[in-house]
Specification:
Helix content: 10-25%
Cofactor: FAD
GO biological process, one term: cell division
Number of helices: 6
Distance between the termini: 25 Å
Number of strands: 18
Catalytic activity: UDP-N-acetyl-alpha-D-muramate + NADP(+) = UDP-N-acetyl-3-O-(1-carboxyvinyl)-alpha-D-glucosamine + NADPH + H(+)
Strand order of the largest sheet: 1-2-5-3-18
CATH topology of the largest domain: Uridine Diphospho-n-acetylenolpyruvylglucosamine Reductase, domain 3
GO molecular function: FAD binding; UDP-N-acetylmuramate dehydrogenase activity
InterPro entries: FAD-bd_PCMH, FAD-bd_PCMH-like_sf, FAD-bd_PCMH_sub1, FAD-bd_PCMH_sub2, MurB, MurB_C, MurB_C_sf, Oxid_FAD_bind_N
Oligomer: single chain
Largest sheet: 5 strands, mixed
Length: about 290
């Protein structure tokens, strides 16, 4: 079940990555627990991976756990309210397609996100005024002691591109309560889809948004004003379509990514006095979006 020294680039949407000391793709809760306790016993950092849509790896001297095989999807309807429970590995596109078919509020605005439900909850992913936490009712997760936990949204702290995970543990599933829209959402969906196609580099491997929007500003606009649009280091560049999107032009490396991000942050700070915060997660030895066991 555990694979040693695995190349991670195939598990990210930007197709850049070093190696993981250990990697696993558990098919059920027992295999997940085994992997977690294996890492805890060896004092290894743990990283939980969805689709890798906002993740770029260097070499990671720990355990990477892919949740792709947790794919359960259930729906219960109460009048015009749909209760949807999706496991962590369910593709966000499935949730979008279902909500569009049923005419549900919210999810259709996330069209084009190459993410899993678990990853989207953990990052509180959002676009066009909508965030994953908006219709979220409950999260089932495995805590760091291996105990199954259940928490209502009101018991959790969500904010812009932020959630209490993975500090609390590993997201296993989310339950959403989505109402029927009181209007035809198909046209709105089409407009959003076309905006994405026109402004985002869908023809190249990308990690999505590189930086969070600072309060009162758009990161892409700041980056464009300091000349980062199209700027290139090695085979990594900020897209000509959208200055906040990093793209891999062929043989991009983790080192290229680090250098170009540092340059972007330097230019924006020197020009505007604004410190950009990464939305993309840079994962390497000793730095995990997970828990580093001392």
């Amino acid at each position: 079940m555990l694979i040693k020294n695995l190349d991670l680039w195939p598990y990210t949407t930007i197709r850049i990555g070093g190696k993981a000391l250990y990697f696993c793709e558990p098919k059920d809760l027992e295999e997940l627990k085994y992997a977690i306790f294996f890492a805890l016993d060896k004092s290894l950092p743990i990283f939980i991976l969805g689709r890798g849509s906002n993740t770029i790896f260097g070499d990671f001297e720990g355990l990477v756990i892919s949740m792709r095989r947790f794919e359960g999807f259930e729906v219960r309807r109460e009048g015009d309210l749909f209760h949807i429970t999706a496991q962590a590995g369910v593709l966000l596109s499935k949730l979008v397609s279902f909500s569009l078919k049923e005419g549900l509020e919210g999810f259709y605005r996330l069209v084009g996100f190459p993410a899993t439900v678990g990853g989207a909850i953990a990052m509180n992913a959002g676009a066009f005024g909508y965030e994953m936490s908006e219709h979220l009712k409950e999260v089932v997760f495995l805590d760091w002691e291996g105990k199954l936990q259940r928490a209502r949204k009101e018991e959790l702290s969500f904010s812009y591109r932020s959630s209490p995970f993975p500090d609390l543990g590993f997201v296993l599933a989310g339950t959403f309560a989505a109402p029927k829209a009181k209007r035809d959402i198909v046209e709105e969906y089409k407009v959003i889809r076309e905006k994405r196609a026109s402004k985002q580099p869908l023809n190249l491997p990308t990690c999505g948004s590189t930086f969070k929007n600072p309060p009162g500003h758009f990161a892409g606009r700041l980056l464009e004003e300091v000349g980062m649009k199209g700027y290139r280091v090695g085979d990594v560049a900020f897209s000509e379509k959208h200055a906040n999107f990093l793209v891999n032009l062929g043989r991009g490396t983790y080192q290229d990514v680090v250098k170009i991000i540092q340059e972007a942050k330097r230019r924006v700070f020197e020009s505007f006095g604004i410190s950009l915060e990464e939305e993309v997660r840079l994962i390497e030895s000793g730095c995990a979006y997970g828990r580093k066991v001392q």
